[in-house]
Here is the input.
Amino acid sequence: MIDGMNGRLSQEVKDMYNEISNPMDYHVALYIRLSKEDESEGPSQSVTNQKSLLEEFTQKHRLQVYDTYIDDGWSGTSFDRPAFQRMVADIEAKKVNMVITKDLSRLGRDYIMTGHYMERYFPEHRVRYISLLDGIDTGVDSSANDITPFRAIMNDMYAKDISKKIKSVKRDKQRKGQFIGGKPMYGYKMHPTEKNKIIVDEEVAPVVRRIFAMALDGMSCRKIAATLNEEHVPTPATYCGWNMGRKGPYAGLWSSERISEMLQNETYIGNMVQGRQVKISYKSKKCLHQERENWVVVENTHEPLIDAESFRKVRMLVNSRKHTRSRTYDFLLKGLVFCHECGYPLAVINRPNASGEVALYFVCRTYQRFTKAGVCSCHSIRESKLTEAVLDKVREVCKEYLRPQALLPVAERAVKEASQEEKTAAEIAALQGKITSLTENLDRMYTDRLSGLLPETDFQRIFTRIKEERGRLEERIRDLEQQQKSPVSHEDRAKELVQRFLNTACASRELLVSLIERIELTEDKEIIIKFRFAELQQAG
Here is the structure.
C-alpha cells in the first residue's frame, strides 16, 4: 500500500477518502508508534516515513495539526506509553478532536483496549479516528469500519506471535550464557563494548566479597545487614538509582532477606543464572517465580567474585539456620496488634524468657528486620502480658456499658454490620477445617509422645489447650447450624451477644474483633486501643 522508496500514499488509499468537509473544525493529533520488533520490517515502518505519510494526508485535506505524538520503541500491547497518554490528556482538555495513524496496529495491538478506544472512548469524546492504510474513518459510514474488531484481533494475535519469538530468542541467548536483562547482579556491570556480557564492578565488588567473608565468619544475615546499615553502605537499589516507589520506614536499608538472596546466588562464582522469573503473559509486566529446575544456569560465563568452596560453605550455613515465623502461632490478639511508631504489625516469636521458659513475645517487625538501623525499636513484650493488659482495659472501658440496656445499641450495630458480610456456610467450612487441623496436630503429638520426642508434661499441657479450642469451635458450628435452621432477628442476636459479653468478660476473640479495630504498642509499652464504636472510644 506504500511506495517503499518515498512513503507516499498509493492511489488506492487516496481514493478511500473523500474531501473532508469543514476541515477547519478539526484539531488533529498525528500519532506515531514504532516498537523494537518493527525496526527490522523495512523503512516503511520508520518514524520518519510514518510522519511523512500522515503530514501528506493532512496537507491534502487542509487539516490543522495540533501536535504530533511519537512513541519510539514502545510495544503496542501496552497503552501506558508517554506520548499516547499525553495525547489522551489533550483529548480530555478538548484540544484534540481528530486522531490519525498510519494503520490500526500503530494505535495498539491489544484488541480489547483498541476496541475500547475505537468503540467507546473516541465516540464519547467526539473524536474522529482515521487509520490511513486500513481505510478506517469513524466520521463516515464505511464497510471498513465494520471489520475493525477483526483487524484488532489480528493485530493482537500478531503481538502474541512476536512475543513468543522474542521470548524464544531471549531463551536461546540465555542458554548461550549471554546476559539478558536490565541491570546485572549487584557487584557486576555491563561490558562497555561487548553486548550481553557482564564484568566485575570494581566500585562495589569489595562490598560483595566482604558480605561473604562476614558470612564465613559466622555472622547471620540479619547481623550483616545491620553492620552495613550502621556504616551507611548504599543498598543495591540505591547504588543503581532504582525507583523504589512508595518509601516505607526501611527504604534504603539492607535487609536480611536481601543478604540471604545474595549469599545463595551462583552469579558470584561465575555462573550466569537467569529465568528465575517469568511474565504472566505478553500483556502483563507482573512476573511469577520459577521453580529452580526451570532456571537457565550456564557455568563459567564471567569472572567470579567468590571461589566455589567458600560459596558452598556459605550456602550451607544459610540453609542450616531456621527462622521462626509468626504465622505458625495462634493467639487471641492475632492481627490486631501494631507498632505505634512505625505502624507495621508486630511479629510474634517464640523464645525463652529470663527463667528459661519458652514463651511467645510481640516484637516490632521493622526492628526485627533492620536491627540497629534506627528506624524503630524492639517493643518487646510477652504475649500473655499484653493480652491480659488488653482484656483488663477492655473491661475497664466497658464498665459503664455492662448494663444490658446500655450496651444493646452497640451490640445491635455490631450484629447488623456482621450480618452483611457473614456467610454462614463458609464460616462453618472454615471452622471444620480448623477442627481437622487441630485433630491432625493431636495425632502427631500423640505419635511424638510415644516416640519420646514430646515430654509427657508438654503433651498434657498442649493437649488440654487444643482440646478446649476444638470444643469451642465445635460449639460455634452447632450455633451456626442452628441459625441456619431457625434464623433469629438482629435484636435477638444482639441480646445474645450482650449476654455472652457479660458472661465471658471479653475473653472471646470473636467479641474482641467485633469491638476492637486495632491495638497499638508504644516504645514505652503503653497500650492504645482503638475501638470500632465511638461510645466505647469515648469511655476509654
